[in-house]
Each structure stands twice: as C-alpha cells, then as structure tokens.
Amino acid sequence: MQSFPFTAIYAQDDFKLALILCMIEPGLGGVLALGDKGTGKTTTVRGLSHLMQRSLPDFPFVNLPIGATEDRVLGTVQLDTLINEKKIAIQAGLLAMANHGILYIDEVNLLNDYLMDILLDAAASGSYHLERDAVSRWFESKFCLVGTMNPEEGELRPQLLDRFGLSVTVHTPMNRTDRMQIVNRRLQFDTDIPAFLAQYETQEQALAERIVAAKEQVKQVTYDETIQVTIADTCIEHKVEGLRADILLLKAARAYAAFHQRKSVTTEDVHKVMPFVLSHRSKNYSSSQNPQQQREQQSPRDEKEGDSIRIKMN
After folding, report:
1. Cβ-based burial of 272 (10 A; exposed 0-12, middle 13-18, buried ≥19)
2. Is 6-187's fold the same as 212-307's?
3. Residue spans with biased composition (Low complexity) (predicted)?
4. Percent helix, strand and coil across the chain, each rounded to 5?
5. Distance of CA 135 to the CA centre of its chain
6. Which residues make Cβ contacts (< 8 Å) with residue 217, sequence separation at least 6?
7. Which residues does residue 35 pair with via DSSP β-bridges, in sequence order?
8. Which residue in 72, 137, 244, 310 is the catalytic one?
9. Which residue in 26, 29, 92, 269 has the fewest CB atoms around it within 10 Å?
C-alpha cells in the first residue's frame, strides 16, 4: 500500500517537525500526538516511515495493536522446535522488529499500563531482556515510539506522559483554506497516485537526505553556557519536576540546529522546541508563549505553508 507523501501533508507542521527531530536524535524518546480522530496522525507517521526508507531501505514501521499480548510484544520461544529439534528458536516480538525504526501505537492511552511500562523502558534503554522457558536473550530496541490519542477517551498517567520526550497537539483545521487544501490533496492522491507522487518526488528525496545528514552531524553540534542557563531558567520558571526536561530540551535543540545545518545551538533553537518538551510537563506552559511563537500565530498562513519542508520548516 502506497503511503501519502510526508511532504504533501498540509497544516501539520508541529507534528512533522517533532517526528523529524526524533529521527535525527533517537535519544528524545518518542512523540505523543494528542488530538481529534481524522486529523491525519497515522497518515503522517506512515508517510515519514516511507520517506526514511529512501535512505534506509530496511527502516521498519511496526504497528502495535492495543490488544497485543506480552508474548507478541516481547517475543516468545517456539516450543515445537525446542521439543522436537532440541534447538532454541525465538520468534521476535514487536519491540525487536521495530529496532532502528518506528513503533507506532494508535490510541496509546487505551494500552494497559503494564505493557506501556515495558515499551517505555525498552525505548529509553534501547534494549530489553526476554526470559521464557529457561531461555534468556537480549534484544536491541532502538526505536522511535510514536503514540497517538484522543484525550477525551482517557488520559495517560503523569508518570507515563513524562516518558514521552516530545508532545504535540494535532487540531482539526478551522481555517477554510486549510480544509480545502487538505481535501484537494487527498482527492488528487486517490485519483492518480503515480502523478501525485511525482509532484513531491524531489521534495521527498531532499528531505530524506537532509534528515540523514542531520542525524550524522547532531552529536557534533555544540552549545554554550548561555544555552544551558536559558534551559535551566525556563524549567525553573515553569516548575518542571526532575531534570528530564532539561536534558530533552538540549537534545531537541541540538537536533533542530543540525536539521538547519548549524554547528551550534542558538536561543531561537531552544525556544522553537520548548512547546514540544514542556507542554505535557508544565501545567502553566500553554498559557505562556515566547515572542517568536506569538508572531507566527498572528501571521496569516501562506498558501504553501503546509509545504513547510520545501520552504523552510521554521
């Protein structure tokens, strides 16, 4: 099944950017997208996976169903082979299958807490330990965890919410132009898929290469004491508990700088990623925005702003 092009997705700039940052810096720990059904969250994630496969052909996209069992998630020993052939054969679980790719969970708030804890631990550590029927095995699980949910259908526990590195809210567009543009693109895609894909071929390839280049350079991006002071003061101002937010803000800012081919982090980089890191960690953050965000919200949307990857991805 052909995915809708990532660069053709309109009016989802924040979600797209958060996903890109996690591709560049896996240590961010994934993205939680909150919002209404039918806003293109799944389409966006699948589009990114397809785009990444241009540069990384084996890049996996694994969908974890809400009803998945522990054995399906972690893996299991094939008892028939063990008994009949005296050989240890392990069927890999979804966590191992998602290694170096994306593990996607729709309606993540409906997943039972026990499995959620396992997933978040595996995502944070990059590996997990499987013990079944006297068999012990370590698996790599270096994936980007992407969860989507509608808050009206139930909340995540605060402890679990904090484990998602980034969070965005995906709104149903209430602008006439945005809605028309989204519908037109979808109908064009459904009517003639090859022709629609051809329109975005250059943008898709350029973005894939740009992400891979940033991924290779992110560890070399530097920061100074001014950046650390900005981050620390911001977290103190918003009464953020623990130091996870400080670390994630710095990682996200470095990823954003690398995406823009900069060798050092600027305060603008930090301000840009603040909503992704703090919106689900500070109750009062949503009521306070930095001047740059206020200017962006007050500016009218350009007809091509939905193609922000092509223009700037600011």
Report:
1. buried
2. no
3. 286-297
4. 55, 15, 30
5. 33
6. 258, 261
7. 170
8. 244
9. 92
In degrees rounded to 5, what are phi and psi of residue 149?
A: -160, 155
CB 45 within 8 A of CB 104: yes
For residues 32 and 30, give the distance between their C-alpha atoms in angstroms, rounded to a whole number: 7
Instruction: Find tokens 């694994």 and name the residue.
Output: 62
Yes or no: say if 112 and 70 are a contact pair by the CB < 8 Å rule: no
SS3 at position 32: strand
Angle formed by the axes of helices 13-24 and 244-259, nearest 10°: 100
Classify 212-307 by CATH class.
mainly alpha
Judge whether 244 counts as a catalytic residue.
Answer: yes
CA–CA separation, 123 vs 68, rounded Å?
17
Q: Delimit the domains of the chain by residue range.
A: 6-187, 212-307
Spatial contact of 152 and 34, defined as CB atoms under 8 Å apart: no
Phi, psi of 102 (to 5 degrees): -120, 130
First to last CA, the chain: 31
Count Cα atoms within 13 angstroms, Cβ side, for 131: 2
Successive 10-residue mean pLDDT values, the chain, 314 residues = 92 96 92 90 95 93 91 79 67 90 92 85 84 79 91 80 90 92 96 97 96 96 97 94 94 98 97 95 62 40 44 52
Q: How far apart are CA 19 and CA 24, in angstroms?
A: 9
